Amino acid sequence: MIFNKDGSTTIITQEKTTIVEFVKRLEKRYDSLKNDNIIINLFSLKQISVDDINEFLRVSNMHKASKHSFVIVTDKIGIDESIEEITIVPTLQEAYDLVEMEEIERDLGF
Questions:
Q1: Rounded to whole angstroms, how far apart are CA atoms 32 and 5?
Q2: Nearest Cα residue to 98 out of 81, 80, 82, 86
Q3: How many angstroms separate the CA atoms of 80 and 33, rounded?
Q4: Secondary structure of residue 69 in the 3-state scheme
Q5: I need a surface site. Which of 8, 37, 51, 99 has the fewest CB within 10 A?
Q6: pLDDT tens track for 51-104
Q7: Other C-beta atoms within 10 Å of 50: how many?
Q8: Considering only CA atoms, which of 40, 41, 49 is closest in space to residue 69?
Q9: Other C-beta atoms within 10 Å of 4: how many?
């Protein structure tokens, strides 16, 4: 796992381990990330299934409940293929744009 902090957003890049192991590591380090918006960059993985994406559901729901963004970046799974609670975008730029838009919505009280 590679962590890059950009303002109030942490980008976590997954390269080698399985998704299940990645989620376990993320949960162990969650306390240090809970106040940031989180972007999970899975772009380097060659194969990702909907089940892999669903592994992030618990962390995603917990993070969004605390009024922070949680976005997964992959072009291997379409938005319409995953469950609605998980936010997926195909590019890192779209993830940044979405986080910015959600921050504005939170500031406005939506």
A1: 12
A2: 86
A3: 28
A4: coil
A5: 51
A6: 999 999 999 999 999 999 999 999 998 778 888 899 999 999 999 999 999 999
A7: 13
A8: 40
A9: 11
